[in-house]
## 1
Amino acid sequence: MRRILGIALAVLLLGGVIAVAVLGGDPAPRTATKTVKGVIGSEKSEYFRDPDVVKALADKGYTVKTETSGSWSMDQLALKEFDFAFPGSSEPAPEIEAAAGVKGAQTTKPFFSPLVVIARSNAAKVLADNGLAKMTGKSSGTLLMTPYLKAADEKRSWQQLSGSAAFAELTGTVFIKTTDPATSNSGALFLAATSNVANGNNVVSDQAGIDRTAPLMQKLISVQGALEPSTDDPFRAFISGSGEPLILAYESQVAALLQQKQAPGDMVVLYPDTTVNSPHTFVPISENAKELGSLLATDPKLRELAIRHGFRPQNGVPNFTAATSAHAAYLNPELTGIRQVSAPTVKILMALAARAKG
């Protein structure tokens, strides 16, 4: 009897295997079918390393490997070794396309992030008390660009600002720590915004505009000393309690930190009242990555995960607002009171960066 039951069970199991094969079923989990390699800005590293993002991409047939680079130096890489490039804004994209030999490629802008200045609470208080910033709460406010740039032009020190004597850590020239504007997207867009203000609230578009604004741009950059290649290191230094009292960052870095319930420490988020948004732009280089940009932009799961990492999906303000509602003390989801301006051309912006660095 046991032998008969064993034979019957074996027949049933074999029949199941045959049925799966005939009906096209796949009892195993779906695995990625394409492996693509991309060069990305460092601000997106954690997004692509997230196991949930890895799984979501695998479910759509992709294994994505990445290397990081400053957005404005990606065109100097051996781009034929990559399937895609993903700089932090749209401005470097044409240069990347030309260098990769894919001019006219169908680029995609899956998400964006405005620039912010993160400040120690004491530094934010002193700025506000001296009319360089306006607080909207204990942990958030607006950096007033015109008075701030006037102070920078005068090379004003913290000691010259009223109330700073109470805070021993506030010494030396007042400045915002940025990244290298010649290679890094955040540093370049900081010059785009500040040069706009310095140029009478107009985009710098010619040599006269460069000559007019370059002396101030040079003061903003030269005071910093060594320049970082990406926003990641200065941001991590700030969160760890070291670094300068004023740091340029992406809003996405702050929003990701808060959503992941990491302690923000002594942090105040100041939104510059004039800013250039940063639409992260996907440039496909090989056929294998051609559809990946659209997938990042439209797939509901990947859009949800982008928000979790602090990015604002295109046409996704309500989703971003809802996801970050618990952190309204730090963030400005609607970008209320913020003037958004265009960046100069790549040629103009790189000329400004060169003049700024001396």
Note: The first helix runs from residue 2 to 23.
## 2
Amino acid sequence: MTDTTGTTGTTGRAGLEGAPGTASADPTGTLDEALERLHAAGPERNGWLSNHGPMAVEALVRHGQAPAVHRWLDHYSHKLEDMPAPAVRVTAENWHEALGDPRRIADWTMYFERETAGRPWQDVLTEWWPRLLPGIAAGATHPVIRVGHAVRTLLDGEANAPRIAELAHGLGYWAARHQPLPALNPPASLVPAPSAAAALDAVPPVADQTGGIRDRLAQLTVFPLWPQQFADDPDVARARLAELVRAATHRYATHGHGAPIMLVHAATAPNAVLRTLPALPRELWGQSLAAAWAASAAVTAAYSPADPVPCTASPSAPSADEIFARAAAHGDDHTIKFTDTALDVGDTTALAAALRSIELNPPALSPLSRTAPIASRAPSRTRR
């Protein structure tokens, strides 16, 4: 599929901070209410499936769908489980032994709640970002995506208690699920890819695509070399990261059918990193790009289909706002989050990819539930 614009649209990255539709433009406090509801729950369910609620409600509020948030949560709540019981307190002295132990999810969350209560959240993020980056693919990349949504809200809105707590929950989840990708040793003959799109096209699929993501990631052997230099210039690193997000979003339009849910993460994971860069020292931008590329390439290797399918944008395609409204009515959490990323990119191909995700993923809301009265609005601490 060919992009007809080649640039970021008016809904894209350049206009994100302070733009209409950001989380800061939420006079009803819906996002904060929703986050308080969600913080009674753990970050996972059924052993390892992720709680997508915090990410989805942030995207809904940001794109003008705040009136639907509590109704969406009422529908989603049956998937949530209580936060696990704490085991052993994580401290500055013992965190190394707790890193990557999913049994310590509550311990890690409490650790980051203490840290962000005692220091500026940016300082906590800066300290832990390079420690957590090697495990970016952990939890099928959901922890870093959750952190990216939380940081975006803090950067353009009020740094209040529910939003700082959301960052603590995201960092805690990432630390508990932290698991580096296998060590890869590219052969000396490997030719560098000229662009992010070419690099994603050159990612070799894993041999066995029948298992879960952990089984698939264990089979990784090599990624294409892209870009050739990661850390020389922070501005170049940010530009290459934006290029990667655009390429992965575009690629979903023609390859998303291979795994409509899982392949959204090839775009949403690097976009979470891109959203976080403004909160980080510039010297961390290069390694952030390297980790984002590894995450996107890993998901691509694990789930890409053998062959693409054509996807042509309609000349009468709906507007970005209309597309997100469709995603909100569709109700699937991955579709909402991918459409949010597609609107960040903002060009014709990205919007077509968002429509493709709405088409490929089964709707989570029935027509009746889309119009039913909103139920509870007050924060609840009961099991959902």
Note: The radius of gyration is 20 Å.
